[in-house]
Structure formats: C-alpha cells, structure tokens
Amino acid sequence: MTAHEIDYEIFGEEMQYVEIELDPQEVVVAEAGSFMMMENGIQMQTIFGDGSQQQSGFMGKILSAGKRMLTGESLFMTAYQNQNVMKAKVSFASPYPGKIVPLDLRRHNGKFICQKDAFLCAAKGVSVGIEFSKKLGRGLFGGEGFIMQKLEGDGMAFVHAGGTLAKKELGAGEVLKVDTGCIVGFEQTVDYDIEFIGGIKNSIFGGEGLFFATLRGPGTVYVQSLPFSRLADRIIASAPRSGGSNREEGSILGGLGNLLDGDNRF
Description:
Blueprint: E1 7-11, E2 17-22, E3 27-30, E4 35-38, E5 42-48, H1 57-70, E6 76-82, E7 88-93, E8 98-104, E9 111-114, E10 119-123, E11 127-132, H2 136-141, E12 147-152, E13 156-162, E14 165-170, E15 175-178, E16 183-187, E17 191-196, H3 200-205, E18 211-216, E19 219-224, H4 228-238, H5 255-261
Antiparallel strand pairs: 1-2, 2-7, 3-6, 3-10, 4-7, 5-6, 8-13, 9-12, 9-16, 10-13, 11-12, 14-19, 15-18, 16-19, 17-18
C-alpha cells in the first residue's frame, strides 16, 4: 500500500483547520461534514468507504463501507482530487474546540488505533478500518465498546482531539490510567484494558464512573482533556427546560442572579 504524499499546514489555536496542498492528481479523503474550503480545480467525489478498496470490485467496496457502519460512521466518504496542472489546496475544519493531530503512519509502524469519531481526513491509500476488542471487560465498560477505528498505511492521517492534547511516550511496562472517554488513540504496541476504580465511596459518589482505562507501554498515547460526550452533557444540562427555566448557572439567587450578571433573556 502506497498512499499519496501530501503536504499540510495546521492553522488556529482552539478551533483549528488543516490546509492540505495537493499536487496534480493527488487525492485526500475526508469524513462528511469536515470540508471547509478549496481552490478552483479540485473535484469532489463521493465514494464507498475510505477509497483504499476501489480496485477490489463491488464486494470489496461493500466490505469497506460495511466496516465504517460498525463504527457508527456513514457508508460514504468524500474524495478531493486536484485536477489542476498546478498545486491546489483544500481545507478541513475541526468539528468542535480542540486540536488536530497529524499522524505519519510510517512512524507508527503502519497502524494507529483511535476512538470512533476521531478521524478527520487522510491521504488516499490510508485504510480506515475497525479494531475489535478481544477482552470482554474492555468491550462492555471501555466507553468505546468492542469497536475502535484503526488507521493503516504509509501516508498522512489527521485525527481530532477535544480540548487540550497530551502526548505520552510510554516505556516498556509503564502504565498510564486514563478516563475512558479521554483517550484519542494509541500505537498498536500499547496494551489497552479496563480497571475497576474500587471502593464504595469512589463508585457511588466519585462522579467519575466505575472504570478507567489502563494503557501499558511501550508506545505513544494521545489523551484529550475534553471528550465531545462530556462537552455535550454539560450543554444539555445547562439548556433551558421545557418551561423556559434553566439551571441559573448554580446561583442561589435564581432569577435575581440573572439580573445581576446580565443574563436577561426572556
């Protein structure tokens, strides 16, 4: 497998986007909804799966697309090909505040495992597949279920992390314990399992769930400070109720507190 060699530049701080420069006839594939802008001469084409099985016949395309269904993604992706005689650029944006992580799969031994909704875009030739968990506990309590995404190939891929990104280089046997939702991805050499927090008070009143992930090196691990599920939960919890009331931002003054802090919505 030989992926297209693409050049890129990442812009922004909290709401980033990646600008990819394509040589003539080069292609980048991306998730639906991540497109931001492109220069004239680049053609969009909807494809089954990730495009890595386009030469394997109809059944190969169906299998590639079916794998994406198992991870909760669309059957289709979008390919952007530069049909100019000169270089052209196309950009893809982050879906929510955080960081875009560029991954050169050649430096990760051709494979990187990530959470289901982390993938943003990649050079054509990179395979976006599924990684099944072989451990019952990890599948039931790992936050991502039995299935995660795996990126395979020898090209560039880009994933998105929420909030602030932490990159950890684990030595052989070194263990990192992480909230299950905060994992962005890790190298295939990292062993991933689930551990019970323990203690009645921790389990009932800790507010952190019953399990956390244990990542055992060697290998590289990426951790995010703001999983999208955590962000969504806070937004939903703070949204106005059916009668138009809200949580008053924790103020004991209620509506009077809104008048004092400038929240004067009707």
